[in-house]
From TrEMBL:
Residue ranges constituting the Aminoacyl-transfer RNA synthetases class-II family profile domain according to the UniProt record: 38-341
Protein name as catalogued: Proline--tRNA ligase
Gene Ontology cellular component list: cytosol
InterPro entries named in the record: aa-tRNA-synt_IIb, aa-tRNA-synth_II, aa-tRNA-synth_II/BPL/LPL, Anticodon-bd, Anticodon-bd_dom_sf, Pro-tRNA-ligase_IIa, Pro-tRNA-synth_IIa_bac-type, Pro-tRNA_synthetase
Localization annotation: Cytoplasm
Gene Ontology MF term list: ATP binding; proline-tRNA ligase activity
EC number from the UniProt entry: 6.1.1.15
The keyword Ligase appears for this protein: yes
Lineage of source species: Bacteria, Pseudomonadati, Pseudomonadota, Alphaproteobacteria, Rhodobacterales
Length: 445
C-alpha cells in the first residue's frame, strides 16, 4: 500500500478523553472511530489488525478440530426464556421489539442459540464429540464502557461451545481449549496466563480466565512468579489425546494463579514470599465447563449406546478478539507509539523515502516495494512529500516491526537502512539483503 493512496487519518493531538495508552494510540493512529459510547467503526489500519487476530483464532480453532459456524446477532427472547436467562441477564442485554411486538435481543453470548441448533440436528451419541464456534459481534450494554475497544458495548468475540456425551469427554474439550488458547495468544506475541476464576452468570465449577498482565488491567490477580516463565512454544500436542491435553493443563495451572474472586490467602501464603505477586490483568479469554445446565433446560439430548435419552455435557469458551488489540498495545508500546508483534502487524514492513521526487530514491523504493510484494509480504510505502521527521513519527506511531529508510546518500553507497521498531537498532545493508532479512523473519513465524 502507498500511504498517499491509503486512508489512515493520523491525529497529531492526543485525544483528551482517552485514559489509557492503547486507546490513545488506536485513535491517534487512525485505527478506530467512535460511533457512540462503547461502539466503534473500524478504519483500515485497525481492521487489518482485527482480521489478523481473527485469522489466528480461526487457524488455532480449526487445528484443534473445532467447527466454524456463524449465528445471527439478533435472537428471539423466547429462546432465553427457555433457559431462564431472559430475566436473569439484566440490563446488560439490549432488548428490542419487532413490528409484530415480539421480544428480541442483540446476542450478548450464544449458549441458547447454539443449543437450539444442536437439538434440531443432533440426536445420537455417535455424532459426538462436537465443538461449534463462531467469531461474531456481541452487544452488552455495559454500565461503564471505557478504555476504547477494551470495554466496548459492541465487541467482536470468538465464542465456542462443546457438546459431549460424558463429563469426562467435556473435560477433555475443556483441556483442548486451554491448549489451543495458549497457542493462540502466543502467536499474537502475548503472554496470557490461565487463572482459576469464578463461573459468574454462565455458571459452572470449572473455569479459567486468560489474563495479560498490565497496569491498566481491570482485574486483580494473584500468582506465583514462576507461572510467568511458562511458555508453550512450538511443541506439538495431539488434540485427540486426553493424556497430552491434560498434561498441558496440569503444567500451566498447577501453580498458584488466580483472580481476586477465587483468591485464597492461606494457599497463596504457602508460596515462598519472594515469588508471591499481586498485579493487574486484562481478561482476554475464558473457558467454562458447565455440564448439563442448558441441555437439560432446553432439551438437548442424545441417545446413548444403551438407547437412553441423556442430556449432553457442555462448555463454552470465549476470546475477546477486539479487546485483544487493546491488550496487545498495552503489552507492547513505548512513548513513541505501538510496537506490533510480527504475528498481528497490519503491514509487514514500512518503506520511508527520505527524498520523494528524487529519481534514484523513488526507483529504489519502487523496487523494494515490488520485491516485498513478490515475496508475499505487505509493505506500507510512505511516498508522501513530507519531512523525514514527520514520516518517522508516523511509522513509530503505527508500530510496524520493520522499517526500511531509503535516501540518496545511502544509495550512493548501495545501502538502505533496516530498523527494528522494537529495539531501535539499525543496520545498513544492500536493498536485496534488507528484503531477504525481513522475509526470513516472517517465514520463521
Ligand atoms: P468481563 O469480566 O471483562 O466483563 P466477561 O467475563 O463478562 O468479561 P466473557 O463472557 O468471558 O466476558 O467473554 C469472553 C471474552 O470476551 C472476555 O474474556 C473478554 O476478553 C471479552 N469481552 C467481554 N466483555 C467485553 C467487552 N465489554 N468489550 C470487549 N471485550 C469483552
Ligand atoms: Mg469472562
Amino acid at each position: 500500500m502507498r500511504l498517499s493512496r491509503y486512508f489512515m487519518p493520523v491525529l497529531k493531538e492526543t485525544p483528551a478523553d482517552a485514559q489509557i495508552v492503547s486507546h490513545r494510540y488506536m485513535l491517534r493512529a487512525g485505527m478506530i472511530k467512535q460511533t457512540a459510547a462503547g461502539i466503534y467503526s473500524w478504519l483500515p489500519l485497525g481492521l487489518k489488525v482485527l482480521r489478523n487476530i481473527e485469522r489466528i483464532v480461526n487457524e488455532e480453532q480449526e487445528r484443534a478440530g473445532h467447527v466454524p459456524i456463524l449465528m445471527s446477532t439478533i435472537q428471539p427472547a423466547d429462546l432465553w426464556r427457555e433457559s431462564g436467562r431472559y430475566d436473569d441477564y439484566g440490563e446488560e442485554m439490549l432488548r428490542v421489539r419487532d413490528r409484530h411486538d415480539r421480544d428480541m435481543l442483540y446476542g450478548p453470548t450464544n449458549e441458547e442459540a447454539v443449543t437450539d441448533i444442536f437439538r434440531a440436528h443432533v440426536n445420537s451419541y455417535k455424532d459426538l464429540p462436537l465443538t461449534l464456534y463462531q467469531i461474531q459481534w456481541k452487544f452488552r450494554d455495559e454500565i461503564r464502557p471505557r478504555f476504547g475497544v477494551m470495554r466496548g458495548r459492541e465487541f467482536f468475540m470468538k465464542d465456542g461451545y462443546n457438546f459431549d456425551l460424558t463429563k469426562e469427554d467435556a473435560l477433555h474439550a475443556y483441556n483442548r481449549h486451554l491448549v489451543s488458547y495458549l497457542r493462540t495468544y502466543e502467536r499474537m506475541g502475548l503472554k496470557a496466563i490461565p487463572m482459576r476464576a469464578d463461573g459468574g452468570p454462565i455458571g459452572g465449577d470449572y473455569t479459567h480466565e486468560f489474563l495479560v498482565l498490565a497496569e491498566t488491567g481491570e482485574s486483580e490477580v494473584f500468582y506465583d512468579a514462576e507461572v510467568t516463565d511458562l511458555t508453550f512454544g512450538d511443541r506439538e500436542v495431539d488434540y485427540d489425546s486426553v493424556e497430552e491435553c491434560e498434561a498441558v493443563l496440569k503444567e500451566f495451572t498447577s501453580r498458584y494463579a488466580r483472580t481476586d474472586e477465587t483468591h485464597d490467602e492461606a494457599l497463596f501464603n504457602e508460596i515462598p514470599e519472594e515469588r508471591r505477586r499481586s498485579a493487574r490483568g486484562i481478561e482476554v479469554g475464558q473457558i467454562f465447563y458447565f455440564g448439563t445446565k442448558y441441555s437439560e433446560s432446553m432439551g438437548a439430548t442424545v441417545v446413548n449406546a444403551d438407547q437412553e435419552q441423556v442430556p449432553v455435557h457442555m462448555g463454552s469458551h470465549g476470546i475477546g478478539v477486539s479487546r485483544l488489540l487493546g491488550a496487545i498495545i498495552e503489552a507492547s508500546h513505548d512513548d513513541k507509539g505501538i510496537i506490533w508483534p510480527e504475528g498481528v502487524t497490519p503491514f509487514h514492513v514500512g518503506i520511508v523515502n527520505l527524498k520523494q521526487g528524487d529519481d534514484e530514491a523513488d526507483a529504489a523504493c519502487d523496487a523494494l516495494y515490488k520485491a516485498f510484494v513478490s515475496a508475499g509480504l505487505e509493505p506500507l510505502y510512505d511516498d508522501r512529500k513530507e519531512r523525514a521527521g514527520g514520516k518517522f513519527a508516523t511509522m513509530d506511531l503505527i508500530g510496524l516491526p520493520w522499517r526500511i529508510t531509503v535516501g540518496p546518500r545511502g544509495l550512493k553507497n548501495g545501502v538502505v537502512e533496516l530498523t527494528s521498531r522494537k529495539t531501535g537498532e539499525s543496520v545498513e545493508v544492500a536493498p536485496e539483503e534488507a528484503v531477504a532479512k525481513v522475509k526470513a523473519i516472517y517465514e520463521a513465524l
